[in-house]
Amino acid sequence: MSRIVYRVDNNEVTFKVGPNAQHLNASEVAKRIVDIKEELQTQTGVEVTSAGIGDKVSQGVKPSTRISGRML
Fold first, then answer.
1. CA distance linking residue 30 with residue 37, whole number of Å
2. What CA–CA distance (Å, rounded) separates 45 from 54?
3. Rounded to the nearest 5°, which phi and psi values hold at 50?
4. In terms of Cα–Cα distance, which of 64, 68, 36 is closest to 51?
5. Residue 45 has what DSSP assignment?
6. Integer Cα distance of 67 and 19 in angstroms
7. Range(s) of the domain holding residue 46
8. Distances from the Cα of 11 to the Cαs of 8, 47, 58, 66, in angstroms?
9. What is d(CA 52, CA 44) in angstroms, rounded to the nearest whole number?
10. CB–CB of 46/28 below 8 Å?
């Protein structure tokens, strides 16, 4: 099992996609988040307003998901 590295800020969750059992890369994870955003809102009350990948020089490529609603 791989370790999940993440950061939670006001209205933003950022995490690094490493090796995983589904063999998904950062772009695929961001696309899947968009694909299930309505289900996420229904089940958690969190609204995903955007998802994508960004480059953090010191920590590699990470998907970034902007959320509104309740705090995580």
1. 11
2. 25
3. -165, 155
4. 64
5. S
6. 25
7. 5-69
8. 8, 10, 22, 6
9. 20
10. no
0.90 exceeded by pTM = no
Q: How many domains does the chain have?
A: 1
Tokens of 2: 């791989």
AA letter at 62: K
33 phi and psi angles, rounded to 5 deg = -60, -45
Q: What pLDDT digit, counting tens, does each position of 49-66 carry?
A: 888 887 653 333 344 555
70 — phi, psi (to 5°)?
A: -80, 160
Distance from C-alpha of 48 to C-alpha of 12, rounded to nearest angstrom: 9
DSSP H helices, 1-72, are 26-35, 37-44
For a pLDDT cut of 70, what percent of the chain falls above it?
71
> What is the rounded distance in angstroms from the CA atom of residue 38 to the CA atom of residue 46?
9
